Amino acid sequence: MSIEIKHLTHIYNPGTPFEHKALDDINLKIEDNEFICIIGHTGSGKSTLIQHLNALLVPESGEVLLNGENIYADRSKLKSVRQRVGLVFQYPEHQLFEMTVYKDVAYGPGNLGLPQEEIDSRVKNALETVGLDESVYDKSPFELSGGQRRRAAIAGVLAMEPEVLILDEPTAGLDPKGRDEILDSIKLMHEKRKIIVILVSHSMEDVAKLADRIIVLNDGKVALTGTPREVFSKVNELEKIGLAAPQITYVLSELAAKGYDVRTDIYTVAEATEELYKFLKQVK
Amino acid sequence: MITDITIGQYFPSDSPLHRLDARVKLVITLLYIVSLFLIKSFIGYAFVIIALAIVIKVSKVPFKFMVKGLKSLVFIIIFTALINVFTVKGGETLVTFWKLSITTEGVFFAIKMALRIILLIIGSSLLTLTTTPIKLTDGIEALLKPLSKIGVPAHDIAMMMTIALRFIPTLLDETDKIIKAQQARGADFDTGRLRDKARALVPILVPLFISAFRRADELAMAMESRCYNGGANRTRMNVMKVTSIDYTAIILFVVYWVVIIAMRIIL
């Protein structure tokens, strides 16, 4: 599976005083099994961009190619596009509606018209992947804790067995434990199922830890793209558009500024720990 | 898309009509609607159409915005016209088939009825298009104030309207989001039989109701934590003032009414 975005432009409320160009000539290519993180300040077009990837929004101009095929070419294939590209919205637990968790997760595969055994196995699989066991199957989604509810909602999209999984700030509003659990299951899924994962996030730490490649959006345009190392080395540019490098990078920069001999091109806590050990040994 | 709904939409612009005092605009709109029911002749309708056209021109709101509001009501307009065509009798008979007959009087009456509804909708949408919801409810509150002496909770009514209006776009956004989220899970709202379509609404309505209640709860909490206790002793940030534009509008509107009454008597 590969995704190619060509000259994508989207305008909200065209022809009215509320007209707003949310995406401006976006060109991107996403390869098979990549883990992509999209960052950008609020209103930079992140949510608009991801809603084009499964044809929920129709662009003003440009195209989205899924395995070389334009997803807007044939309206009758929309369902198959939405099955292959799974989209988890912000606060996905707000779309839960069924009486039980099990039934809610089964809604997606049910819409695909799959046989009952296939639905059952997909639902169980999806719930297992997000770490919910059989004890919650017959509970109402509203009896669960916030983190569990979020995971149940994500399972609802996973049960479609998409080849591309897009998540819009999946950890917003969760406690640290809930956040780690969700990020871990996303990582696990990416490794196990060999799918493309596209993650929108405001946490530079999570992005540095997870991404193969980062896409930085600013005012509807791609401002930067590259590996975490490439992107976070341009701290000045990031700060200019309201973003930042991971906190640990600033810690090391401060140390370097004070005259200590440490590397400053470090973006994850794990790397930093190693570097600091090395440094402390030298001092001894 | 659902966000295309334009009921009560405001069109920002800087025209004399936008600057008009909300109270004046409300009263004028109300009396304008009354005037529509006093017209009997086609000449009368021609006069109203010309007057309305001038006001639309002055308002600087593109005409297509008014037509948008009409679109959703086309069915009602056609339905009313059809009923009138077949039920009103008088004048020469034009066509007869089965038990139904169409007379000239019926056709004229149907056209007048349709015109009346269209003028009514365009006229009142002009009010919401040129007045922000806040100003509108402020105006309603001011007009209801005298009634508070006989126990009408003017402030509470206005506050409820303000909140309701303020939540229309929020809930539309929410609906849009929920629809998209369910579409992303393969939901299909366009095909299938009526029963399937009705059932397809459940995954939208349940989350929408839950979110509406949650928002109402949060808002009530936020208002209480800021010590809201109704209208008692509240002052306004923007005090409404009647200015020279308002006087001009009132004079022009009086002229309009004189013509309407004159036509009713003479024609």
Overview of the molecule:
The complex is a heterodimer of chains A (284) and B (267). Chain A is α/β, with parallel strands linked by helices and 284 residues long. In chain A, 40% of the residues lie in helices and 21% in strands. Chain B starts with 15 loop residues before the first helix and ends with a helix. In chain B, a hairpin with a 2-residue loop joins strand 1 (93-97) and strand 2 (100-103). In chain B, helix 2 packs parallel to helix 11 (244-266) and helix 3 (42-59) runs parallel beside helix 6 (104-130). Chain B folds into two domains: 1-131 and 239-267, no CATH class; 151-234, no CATH class. The interface between A and B is medium-sized, with 23 and 20 residues.
Order of helices and strands of chain A: EEEHEEHEHHHEHEHEEHHHH
Mean pLDDT of chain B: 85
Q: In whole angstroms, how far apart are the ends of chain A?
A: 52 Å
What share of residues of chain A is helical? 40-55%
Oligomer: heterodimer
Mean model confidence by pLDDT of chain A: 90
Beta-strand share of residues of chain B: under 5%
Coarse structural class of chain A: alpha/beta
The overall strand count of chain A is 10
User: Based on DSSP secondary structure assignment, what is the total number of beta strands of chain B?
Assistant: 2
Strand order of the largest sheet of chain B: 1-2
Shape type of chain B: flat
Helix-and-strand structural type of chain B: mainly alpha
Largest sheet of chain B: 2 strands, antiparallel
Strand order within the widest beta sheet of chain A: 6-7-8-3-9-10
Q: How many domains make up the 3D coordinates of chain B?
A: 2
**Order of secondary-structure elements of chain B:** HHHHHEEHHHHHH
Low-confidence stretches of chain B: none
How many H/I helices of chain B? 11
